[in-house]
Design goal:
Elements (H helix, E strand, L loop, with lengths): L3 E3 L3 H12 L4 E3 L6 E5 L3 H11 L8 E3 L3 H7 L5 H10 L4 E6 L6 H4 L4 E5 L4 H10 L3 E3 L13 H8 L5 E3 L11 E4 L6 E4 L5 H8 L6 H4 L17 E4 L6 H14 L4 E5 L12 E3 L4 H17 L4 E4 L8 H12 L5
Parallel strand pairs: 1-8, 4-6, 5-9, 11-14, 12-13, 12-14
Antiparallel strand pairs: 2-3, 3-7, 4-7, 5-6, 9-10
Helix pairs in contact: 1-6
Bound molecules: threonylcarbamoyladenylate and magnesium ion.
């Protein structure tokens, strides 16, 4: 199958939506990462997503919607707390896990009695979802275990020949996936840190949110799998005053054992690494987040075999960056 990258003009958006409505699979942009979508009501198309990605089928998909009506169509008991979160953060980078309605096929939810629902804010995405007219089940549009795609070319690199269209919305504004909050129980639980910070959620909820670390176990089925891994070995530094010394020492150790490492650092820190190879990750942690997955892919394409990422503070988007670095490094912290 030929894979075409399409600009998001009205004609191409219609073409992609038509493909979804007729039971096909299409990649599309969101403000977080690109998604690989199919109609949530077409089990055969949904199973095709799992096959194309090589995704274990016990890992449920998020359902993408364009309106509150569509949320009510698939989720039961939209509680006062859920409504509050919806009005504060949707459209945006928040996924709410809610009790599902029986119209949602088991293959979407991996047999769970809940469904993850998200309403993206990216403009091309909103037009595409509105044109689809059905909720669209979609994981990130990467091959399983690879870093999530933050531009159309990343999708093309992973899925060329396996899907007909990639709707090209340019570079994703956030670059890390949505925050996943489970509001199906008595107290809201954070299942995955992401584009909306825990602090923002707590402000709107007016209460402390339980996190994976405070409850001691991972609750999101997907998080038990290997994730976000380039070919290069990834290491990341804890965030502390003299992390630069530790990073330089680790870099030099790798070089002395014949490796070819690159350091991911904020622009303002680049000079602290002397002549060592660095990728500049922008001015702040929002930039760092936006460039993280692309930098992991870039390291592979430029034949670096090791990546050392600077540590970041755990507030705001930092929590999501740390989560992705823990996953992509397999916990190799220095
Ligand atoms: O930003 C995002 O969320 C992107 C874009 C495309 O929307 N999507 C995304 O999907 O990251 P994916 O499949 O790569 O990650 C979805 C995560 C998985 O870890 C999955 O286990 C979890 O969401 N999930 C989905 N439905 C769930 C449910 N009902 N209960 C608990 N976790 C759920
Ligand atoms: Mg993913």
């Amino acid at each position: 199958m030929e894979t075409r990258i399409l600009q998001p003009n009205p004609e191409n958006i219609r073409l992609c939506a038509q493909r979804i409505k007729s039971g096909g699979v299409v990649a599309f942009p969101t403000e977080t990462v690109y998604g690989l979508g199919a109609s949530a009501f077409e089990p055969r198309a949904v199973r095709e997503i799992f096959r194309i990605k090589g995704r274990p089928n016990d890992n449920p998909l998020i359902v993408h919607v364009s309106s509150l009506e569509q949320i009510r169509e698939i989720a039961d008991l939209v509680s006062p707390l859920a409504l509050k979160l919806i009005s504060a953060f949707m459209p945006g980078a928040l996924t709410l896990v809610m009790k599902r309605k029986s119209c949602v096929p088991d293959c979407v939810t991996a047999g769970l009695d809940t469904v993850g629902v998200r309403m993206p804010s990216n403009e091309a995405c909103r037009k595409f979802l509105a044109e689809c007219g059905v909720p669209v089940a979609a994981p990130s549009a990467n091959t399983s275990t690879r870093p999530s795609p933050t531009c159309a070319e990343h999708v093309y690199d992973d899925l060329r020949g396996k899907i007909p269209y990639v709707l090209d919305g340019g570079e994703c504004e956030i670059g890390l996936e949505s925050t996943i909050l489970d509001v199906s129980g008595v107290a809201p639980k954070l299942l995955r840190a992401g584009g909306i910070s825990i602090e923002e959620l707590e402000r709107v909820c007016g209460l402390k949110i339980q996190t994976v670390s405070s409850t001691g176990k991972a609750l999101c089925p997907g998080m038990k799998y290997k994730h976000y891994s380039p070919k290069a070995e990834v290491y990341f530094s804890a965030y502390y005053g003299n992390m630069f010394g530790g990073i330089n020492a680790h870099y030099d150790l790798l070089v002395s054992s014949g490796k070819n490492p690159v350091i991911l650092c904020l622009d303002k820190n680049a000079s602290l690494y002397g002549a060592r190879k660095v990728y500049r990750m922008g001015a702040d942690y929002g930039d760092y987040a936006r460039m993280l997955f692309a930098s992991l892919r870039r390291a592979d394409s430029q034949n670096y075999d090791s990546v050392i990422a600077e540590g970041v503070p755990s507030e705001g988007i930092g929590a999501a960056i740390i989560n992705r670095l823990v996953k992509s490094s397999g916990g190799k912290i220095i």
